[in-house]
Write a structure and sequence with these properties.
This protein has 15 helices and 16 strands. It is α+β, with helices and mostly antiparallel strands and 417 residues long. The strands form 3 sheets. The protein has an 8-stranded mixed β-sheet with strand order 1-5-6-11-10-9-7-8, sandwiched between helices. A 5-stranded mixed β-sheet has the order 13-12-14-15-16, with helices on both faces. The longest helix has 21 residues.
């Protein structure tokens, strides 16, 4: 029986790679404009990094992490997100010594044991940015603008930006108590997850995806009514900067992020034609995470963007047309002596920057020309018995079928011209 790929994973085939490269190039271009530098962290980390960084009461830590013991008995986890890893690298390599504000971005695979569905996989790819070291709300706005500009650079329309403030350790306790009071008589009707969250993290009750629980949350207190003066002022300035930059948004008081490390600003960008799985990017401020992982108190803000959902959005709007990477030249060699000429020739062509392919099986002229046509090559270089004797090749234009004999020494310069 054929061994198949694990459930929740996906092969990215050659015809699809061009689309991924297109998106990745857009990422690197927009990050360069905004002054972010790429970082690449390990695909697995010590489990306690995510337990401390993400939070024990989150679905990610409780249900979704791929965790195992290595041969030394250490608990290891495939990274379910990259913010904790980026902060760990920031501290371990003392990046804070280089600048007051460290601006990082990443592209890579993440892993969560979740129910696979359209645009959601167990191995999925994220683009994310982290700005570490600055409290000013203009940085929050810049992060949100970067996410918006990236999606717009792909041609995506119908984007909806929602923002909120989730407060800080000073004002959040008051809100937690108001939420608990509101939900006290409704806990018994909630799903098992929400009953567990009620005491440990009542803000997560607003993030439940169960429709009945969402109905129970209608009329719940809004955190924006409980913000301390510092959080209120910070949020007002974020809104002001977004308005100055011409970025439309709506305030969603029920917007909370699924990870415990968020403070103050939280945001989400949806591409609504995707339906239920419409969120394509989200993030916010996480001023306590650096300290939680072992560093000094350090403000930070960032976001992550699910690339599989971005690909779906591009597909929905027909924004990308596949452009196959065809060879420039297909070399047709007829016979063993011709192949001895052809093989070093394709190496010289490649050294000269000319993409070259050839048939290695010694097939007939008809079969090789058929293969040359199928490859999409602009030219065929044909070497037969006569060409070997004359130290020449037959150069054929595949679109016009015109051909001419060219000396072997001149074929590269002829093709370049």
């Amino acid at each position: 029986m054929l061994t198949q790929m694990p459930r929740g994973t996906k092969d990215i085939l050659p015809e699809d790679v061009g689309e991924w490269l297109y998106v990745e190039n857009k990422i690197r271009s927009i990050c360069r404009l905004f002054g972010f530098q790429e970082i690449r962290t390990p695909m697995f980390e010590h489990t306690e990094l995510f337990q401390r960084g993400i939070g024990d009461t989150t679905d990610v830590v409780e249900k979704e992490m791929y965790t195992f013991s290595d041969r030394s008995g250490r608990s290891i986890t495939l990274r379910p997100e990259n913010t904790a890893s980026a902060v760990r690298a920031y501290l371990e390599h003392k990046l804070y010594a280089e600048s007051n504000l460290v601006k990082l971005f990443y592209i890579g695979s993440m892993f969560r044991f979740d129910r696979p569905q359209r645009g959601r996989f167990r191995e999925f790819h994220q683009f994310g940015v982290e700005a570490i070291g600055e409290m000013n709300p203009s940085v929050d706005a810049e992060i949100i603008i970067l996410a918006t500009r990236f999606l717009q650079s792909l041609g995506l329309k119908d984007l909806k930006l929602s923002i909120n403030s989730v407060g800080c350790p000073n004002c959040r306790p008051k809100y937690r108590e108001e939420l608990k009071a509101f939900f006290k008589d409704k806990v018994s009707e909630m799903c098992d997850d929400c009953r567990s969250r009620y005491d440990r993290n009542p803000m997560r009750l607003l993030d439940c995806k169960v429709e009945h629980d969402q109905e129970l949350a209608v009329g719940a207190p809004e955190i924006t009514d409980c913000l301390c003066e510092e959080c209120h002022d910070h949020f007002e300035k974020v809104k002001e900067y977004l308005t100055l930059a011409g970025i439309p948004f709506e305030v969603d008081p029920r917007l909370v992020r699924g990870l415990d490390y968020y403070t103050k600003t939280a945001f989400e960008i949806k591409y609504e034609p995707l339906g239920a799985q419409s969120a394509v990017a989200g993030g916010g401020r996480y001023d306590g995470l650096v300290e939680e992982i072992g560093g000094a108190p350090t403000p930070a803000v960032g976001f992550a963007c699910g690339l599989e959902r971005v690909m779906l959005a591009i597909e929905t709007q027909h924004l990308y047309e596949a452009k196959p990477e065809n060879p420039d030249v297909f070399v047709v060699a007829l016979g063993d002596e011709a192949k001895k000429v052809a093989f070093p020739l394709i190496m010289k062509l490649r050294d000269a920057g000319i993409a070259a392919q050839m048939d290695y099986g010694g097939r007939s002229m008809k079969s090789q020309m058929k293969q040359a046509n199928k490859s999409g090559a602009r030219h065929a270089v044909i070497i037969g018995e006569d060409e070997v004797k004359e130290n020449a090749v037959m150069l054929r234009d595949m679109s016009s079928s015109e051909q001419e004999k060219v000396s072997l020494a001149d074929v590269i310069s002829k093709l370049k011209n």
